[in-house]
Specification:
Blueprint (H helix, E strand, L loop, with lengths): L1 H9 L20 E3 L7 E3 L11 E4 L11 H12 L3 E5 L3 H6 L7 E2 L6 H7 L4 E2 L5 E3 L3 E4 L4 H14 L1 H11 L21 H15 L7 H7 L4 H12 L3 H19 L4 H7 L5 H12 L3 H12 L4
Parallel strand pairs: 3-4, 4-8, 5-6
Antiparallel strand pairs: 1-2, 7-8
Helix pairs in contact: 1-5, 5-6, 8-9
Length: 306
Amino acid sequence: MLAVGIVAEVFAPHGPAAPGFDFALCGDRPGPVPTDVGVPLAVTHGLDRLAGADLVLVLPGAGFRTPPPPAVLAALRAAHERGALVAAHCVGTFALAAAGLLDGLRATTHWRFAELLARSHPAVTVDADALYIDEGRISTGAGAAAGFDLCLHLIRREHGATLANHIARDVVLPSHRDGGQTQYLAAPVPEDGQDERLAEVLAWAREHLHEPLPVVELARRAVMSKRSFARRFTAATGTTPHAWLRELRLSRAEELLETTDLPVEEVARQVGYGSASVLRERFVRRRGVPPRSYRRAFTRATRPTT
């Protein structure tokens, strides 16, 4: 039921600023479906609904160790072959593997079942630590709440950072999480005054992206040594200060490219890069295209049709 709630919330209406998605629950047999919380779920659509879907999300279920019925596997293959995006998170990944859609690709699942997935499907390269893996028209996500990460990533990829950030704010979630599954296994963040100071420093950094923001300055504001700050930062966020800042700068650059006509040089300045060439290098590594090409492609994709 958690997985249903995740995808239903992400793809639900989020006000006039966000486009609406045509969301539907499908099954091999329409009707009531038992759930892990004891409340039956009414599924009104059959597999024929997949024939026109742009995105097919396979949700996790208790019977994942047994391959889905042949009709389900055939419907997943058909959706993929006609060009739909196909994705799954948690143990829903097992259905994509059973359909042969992950052969020769990287994939992830809940860390607890990663070894089983690798053993059951040796043609799949299983990464037990990734929160999600994007292989083009096939994407997989880790367990439980990592479904949010996967869905927001797909929205960010197809509709841009502005919409993904809008939905994330509406749901009260970070629009992007760095790090892997291992940070969530047994690494609670201590609740003390230092963590409150750290949160204040992170909020301050978001408001001062146009500045250099060396780690030593962030540590000074947190009243910590540079080494202690880096250790506490990694425990709290699952990533390093440098990686966190890089992600923050590039996400803000995407928003500015999508929503403004600012020259790339000015975008670079506002997100803290010394020149457009530095932004271009980092942007190409993240998106595979330079900032100007990203802006042109995004403008074409979002231009209203008549």
